Amino acid sequence: MQRIYEPRDLLEAEMLIGMLAGEGIEAFLTGRHLIGAVGELPVSGLLGMMVADEEAERARLLIDEYNGAQPLPGDEPEGYPGELIC
Predict the structure, then answer these.
(1) The whole model's pTM is what?
(2) CATH T-level fold of 2-35+44-67
(3) Given CA atoms 77, 70, 55, 2 in this order, what sign does their dihedral have?
(4) Which residue range or ranges hold the DUF2007 domain (predicted)?
(5) Which burial class, exposed, middle or buried, applies to 18 when counting CB atoms under 10 A from its CB (0-12, 13-18, 19+)?
């Protein structure tokens, strides 16, 4: 298993796990239970996404593509130009 990504929060983690599952990649989230200790622990680096070694490169590529996605012209909400709302 390899740690491939550190999501900002649980919402991002769950969205990415679902996206990877849709591509046939099983991902696991570490640190989920540490979120309640924020204030006692450092804020960054608590969450980590793990995948099997043989899926790590493909999973990183999919996450990079997801993070680089731009809204299609005309699909932007009026109040949020340039924002991709999921």
Answers:
(1) 0.71
(2) Alpha-Beta Plaits (3.30.70)
(3) negative
(4) 1-66
(5) exposed
